């Protein structure tokens, strides 16, 4: 299955954040939240729904998101993504491209991705930020269902700001000896990462037993957590955000 979806959010003449273009294609279904009264400061809220079982082996899925100058978007998942083997040869691929304009912001917070046995999945996130744009994006990877050895997954995150590289990170999971290494996943089933380009960054790294928050060289911060379950991994990412000065000053 091949699918391409598109979402464009702009700021209207009254200063409200509105969805200007929304094109879903199964299994990528975009559902905007419609409130009767929306203040100028309220971001557009869109939910990302998988309308059929996906991704399966052979699937090629793409989502393009544009947040225009001055606009604000929250794009949230509503259920976990479960990568499964398919009847077609080869693995599956999912690519998300996000473009964020001047003085605009995006929060992309999907639900966890579960890599099931025999699955071969590639996930790619590409973000282009204007110099004054704000970004929050989260990824939680779960190695197999309960009691199951995972398949393989390659995850890539590339973020550019004002035309220059900010973060270029790739991770491959599903090799038992590597996943068990203390230098990789230390035997934990769940890896959480969060990229935050949101105002002031911490002056120095923070760390706990199983989470860390590290400022990036060209601005922005990277939070990482390892846990035995997705709930704990996400809770530790929230703990990392609690010590981020830019996030604390802008979110009540």
SSE topology:
Layout: E1 2-11, E2 17-23, E3 28-32, E4 44-50, E5 60-67, E6 72-77, E7 81-83, E8 92-100, E9 105-109, E10 113-115, E11 120-129, E12 134-143, E13 152-161, E14 164-173, H1 176-179, E15 190-197, E16 206-207, E17 211-215, E18 221-227, H2 230-242, H3 245-250
Parallel strand pairs: 1-5, 4-6, 5-8, 6-9, 7-10, 8-11, 9-12, 10-12, 11-13
Antiparallel strand pairs: 1-2, 3-4, 12-15, 13-14, 15-18, 16-17, 17-18
Domain count: 1
First and last CA, distance: 42 Å
Radius of gyration: 18 Å
Q: What structural category characterises the helix and strand content? A: mainly beta
How many β strands by DSSP? 18
How is this structure best summarized?
The strands form two sheets. Strands 3, 4, 6, 7, 9, 10, 12, 15, 16, 17 and 18 form an eleven-stranded mixed sheet that branches. This protein has a seven-stranded mixed sheet with strand order 2-1-5-8-11-13-14. It has 252 residues and is mainly β. It has helices at residues 176-179, 230-242, 245-250, and strands at residues 2-11, 17-23, 28-32, 44-50, 60-67, 72-77, 81-83, 92-100, 105-109, 113-115, 120-129, 134-143, 152-161, 164-173, 190-197, 206-207, 211-215, 221-227.
Task: Walk me through this protein's architecture.
With 252 residues, the protein is mainly β. It has one domain. It has helices at residues 176-179, 230-242, 245-250; strands spanning 2-11, 17-23, 28-32, 44-50, 60-67, 72-77, 81-83, 92-100, 105-109, 113-115, 120-129, 134-143, 152-161, 164-173, 190-197, 206-207, 211-215, 221-227. The longest helix is centred in the last third of the chain and has 13 residues, at 230-242. The protein starts with a strand and ends with a helix. 37% of the residues are buried. The mean pLDDT is 91.
């Amino acid at each position: 299955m091949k699918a391409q979806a598109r979402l464009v959010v702009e700021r209207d003449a009254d200063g409200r954040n509105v969805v200007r273009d929304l094109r879903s294609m199964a299994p990528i279904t975009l559902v905007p939240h419609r409130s009767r009264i929306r203040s100028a400061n309220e971001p557009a809220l869109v939910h990302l729904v998988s309308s059929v079982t996906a991704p399966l082996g052979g699937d090629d899925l793409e989502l393009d998101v544009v947040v225009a100058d001055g606009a604000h978007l929250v794009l949230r998942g509503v259920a976990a993504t479960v990568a499964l083997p398919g009847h077609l040869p080869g693995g599956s691929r999912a690519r998300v491209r996000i473009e964020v304009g001047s003085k605009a912001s995006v929060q992309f917070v999907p639900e966890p991705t579960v890599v099931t046995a025999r699955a071969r999945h590639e996930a790619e996130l590409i973000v282009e930020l204007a110099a004054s744009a704000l970004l929050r994006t989260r990824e939680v990877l779960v190695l197999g269902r309960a009691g199951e050895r995972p398949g393989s997954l390659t995850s890539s995150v590339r973020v550019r700001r004002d035309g220059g590289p900010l973060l270029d990170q790739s991770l491959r999971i599903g090799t038992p000896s590597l996943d068990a290494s203390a230098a990789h996943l230390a035997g934990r089933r769940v890896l959480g990462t969060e990229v935050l380009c949101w105002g002031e960054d911490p002056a120095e790294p923070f760390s706990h037993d199983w989470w860390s928050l590290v400022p990036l060289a060209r601005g922005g911060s990277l939070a990482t957590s390892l846990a035995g379950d997705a709930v704990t991994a996400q809770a530790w990412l929230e703990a990392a955000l609690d010590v981020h000065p830019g996030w604390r000053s802008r979110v009540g």
